[in-house]
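Researcher: Going back to the complex we discussed earlier. I've cleaned up the inputs and rechecked each line, so this should be the final set. Can you rerun the prediction on the complete assembly and write out the structure?
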Amino acid sequence: MNIFRLTGDLSHLAAIIILLLKIWKSRSCAGISGKSQVLFALVFTTRYLDLLTSFISLYNTTMKVIYIGCSYATVYLIYMKLKATYDGNHDTFRVEFLIVPVGGLAFLVNHDFSPLEILWTFSIYLESVAILPQLFMISKTGEAETITTHYLFFLGLYRALYLINWIWRFYFEGFFDMIAIVAGVVQTILYCDFFYLYVTKVLKGKKLSLPA
Amino acid sequence: CHRTPAKDEL
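Model: Rerun complete. Updated structure for the full complex:
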């Protein structure tokens, strides 16, 4: 464990909790893509199946359980409890265009052709694009609530910190996982445009709105 | 033979 991975994990945790609290406190999931949240729940479920087969550390297990629990709670709030506030008309990204290619790629490019390993690979690839429905929704409505942008910022920060973590691990531990690294780079690139808007607008106290 | 990397990351 290095400082970049730890702060990356905590940043990820912050993102998840910010979103859950925002929805819970405002009793509204307006502006949030339910599809992205379902994809993230699928990501955590397929990746953390190793909770049942191997124990790594108390930290590792605790974080996995919290991530899974929070992601399902978020999905529950969006599609069940606060369904009336869900903005489905603007959440029109076709997720099958993500799931099908990502599933195919996981079968073709993986470390080991075993069910658990393929599901893990699937989750890595899927995570790299799971935010697209949310970004698509923002581009469609042309704006995002500031709290939603904080959520996205922490999610992107987590990816950037993980990239530094992998450089660190490569130099000091000789460890690298090509699948995770390539997917992580793709995922981080997807946030770049958003980061730019976040720094130039949100941090200067303006609302994030896109030109028409 | 493949060496499956340790899944210690989240």
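Model: Worth noting: The radius of gyration of chain B is 8 Å.
Researcher: Good, that matches what I expected from the previous run.
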